[in-house]
Amino acid sequence: MALAFRLEGGGEGPTSPRAGTLTTDRGEVPTPAFMPVGTLATVKALTPDEVAGSGARIALVNAYHLYLRPGHRLIESLGGVHRFMGWNGPILSDSGGYQVFSLARLLRVDDEGVRFRSHLDGSEHHYTPELAIEVQSALGVDIAMPLDHVLPGDAPAPDQRDAAERTLRWFDRSRALDPAPALFAIVQGGVDEDLRRRHARELAARKAPGYAIGGLSVGESKAEQYAMTEVACADLPVDRPRYLMGVGSPEDLVHAVAAGVDLFDCVLPTRLGRTGSLFTDDGRVNIKSARFRDRGTPLNSDCGCTTCGNYSAAYLNHLFRNDELLGYRLASIHNLCYIHRLCERMREAVLKGVFDAFADEFLARYQPADEAARTEQRARWETRPRA
Amino acid sequence: MALAFRLEGGGEGPTSPRAGTLTTDRGEVPTPAFMPVGTLATVKALTPDEVAGSGARIALVNAYHLYLRPGHRLIESLGGVHRFMGWNGPILSDSGGYQVFSLARLLRVDDEGVRFRSHLDGSEHHYTPELAIEVQSALGVDIAMPLDHVLPGDAPAPDQRDAAERTLRWFDRSRALDPAPALFAIVQGGVDEDLRRRHARELAARKAPGYAIGGLSVGESKAEQYAMTEVACADLPVDRPRYLMGVGSPEDLVHAVAAGVDLFDCVLPTRLGRTGSLFTDDGRVNIKSARFRDRGTPLNSDCGCTTCGNYSAAYLNHLFRNDELLGYRLASIHNLCYIHRLCERMREAVLKGVFDAFADEFLARYQPADEAARTEQRARWETRPRA
């Protein structure tokens, strides 16, 4: 599986914002790019056409979920996951490390792998780095993740160190398999700056085709998330794509791109959409709010998404107040489109050499949902070292 | 609101199968035709484009539901229900008679109208024939239904008689309002043959632009439903469209068209779709069944719907086993497409003069979900008087 990445703008230092292109056998992905999450080989409520129409160029599926149901061998026998779900562009799969440690009933972790009980039916499984690669190869994805040991951000330091070291050993074992999909390395280390740095350096030395930053957006503060992203990026090779796992709020994307990140995935845009929470440049709005009840115009006439192009805010309000399934779709489309467009705007700003001004303006206007997060975010942004 | 109906084939007698065209200001509807149900101004889970793509030429909304939420005056202020929901073709609205009597908490019925408490918030309402027309005029629909008094099929004969007579008086009051939408008359009378006949005759004398047959598919037997449909049709004018309310299973459609019905509506195709029950010429299949788990081909390669054109039965099975929202959409599209295509096939058979042969073949092959219903249906079909 060929994978190439070329920088087209920015990226002067390891933590500078960048614009690039990720090239896979199934097409090119201009970066920064957001990958919609199709955990079970479906981006919830949407067809592949709608996902592509929202601006997505690459999608994500989850190896843990598809391993459990319907099974990777079944999907392989049906021609692979692209054909199964009807998505012809590139697909990146998460190994399921995060899911094994957060979702399954964990039985035992040792160097060999992880024993857990399925969250679906309680069946017992022994998931190893080798099995994670076998699953992802059978799915036929374009980019795979090695199994990693993920801990909550506030886990004790010795546990974080053990998990990071194990993740490193598991990466080496995974890479030795010479798997068909391109294999990224995942930087762990919790919110310990030294551990993050050391882990990033050790993985950087292995020259993986790409790097993921894991174990963030799992309960740590925004300030810690931003700091750890920057620490990881500082020691990663500039010529390889960087993927910040599980991050998807607009303000977090701007901060991460500022630190040199290229790729993102998160359930947030579609999950928020299904609750009626829609992205705008001023922050999220709740479409169920009474102020939208009689608004005959779209939520945002300049949005460019098919939802804003075809439906009034009043109609979306009506659909959500009645729990109508169409509302979930239309809101998911809007939110994905917003995030993809945000990535495009950041890319344009990098290419024009005006990313800092873009980020200043965006963050001054965008109101995060949580006021504490907002204060924290602004303080961090305003005190950052200037180029 | 101009409404015209012209017969193009069949219809030799009042209970002969017919092919026609219903012409409205918003477009033509070849008949027999099925109207997808968009109770709350949305055909559940689908966009207007998908509804049209499935073959629908006319849609249905419900005045009771839209009166309660978001309110007909709000929809009027936003430009009417077509614009609100983004459906540009003709729309027929049900008055809400059936919903008032089946869904709301009924307080009192007298000649003036109905007092009920909303099923949503318990608020008290006084719904009259006049209000039902006011609501539907404000929605701006193309065809309206008068308020009718609907009873379960097994209600005592005197109650059925009173309800039918009240329905007649309410129709006269509704018609006197000279409402903007074309107003159909609704034949009631439960499963009492004499009452049905008398009611049909009295309404027929009033030369409505179209006739609905109400109070069926509400618990009576299949044999009674078929018999009452035929009794009503026997006394309705041949040159006006006949609409059998709330009937939507494939075998029922074939029986009703055989008796001279032109229009149908029912939540069945989309509701069944959302449970994973899909129509085929052999009867319904449950897509969750294990036999579809590894079927890499579509449910029906000849179907012509976008679901069968793009997705394998195995993928649908996977979506339903995981309660994925996309499954509800794809199955709803398939079922609507199946019903619309069935109407087209019946139309073609009428125009070719081979409807009886088509019906024989269809009913011999199609297995209704319920074996008792099947036996009853076949017996009735086989003993019908031949032309």
Walk me through what this model shows.
2 copies of one chain form a homodimer. In chain A, α14 runs antiparallel to α15 (355-365). The first copy, chain A, starts with a strand and ends in a 5-residue tail after the last helix. In chain A, the strands form 5 sheets. Chain A has a 5-stranded parallel sheet. In chain A, strands 5-6-10-11 form a 4-stranded parallel sheet. In chain A, strands 1-2-3 form a 3-stranded antiparallel sheet. Chain A is built from 16 helices and 17 strands. In chain A, a hairpin with a 2-residue loop joins β16 (277-280) and β17. Chain A is globular. Chain A folds into 2 domains: 3-266, Queuine tRNA-ribosyltransferase-like (TIM Barrel, Alpha-Beta Barrel), CATH 3.20.20.105; 273-382, no CATH class. Chain A is 43% helix and 18% strand. Chain A has 387 residues and is an alpha/beta fold. Chain A has helices spanning 48-53, 63-68, 72-77, 81-85, 97-102, 129-139, 157-176, 193-204, 222-234, 250-258, 268-274, 306-310, 313-321, 325-351, 355-365, 371-382; strands at 3-10, 18-24, 27-31, 33-36, 59-62, 91-94, 105-109, 114-117, 124-127, 143-144, 182-183, 185-187, 211-213, 242-244, 263-266, 277-280, 283-286. The interface between A and B is medium-sized, with 34 and 34 residues.
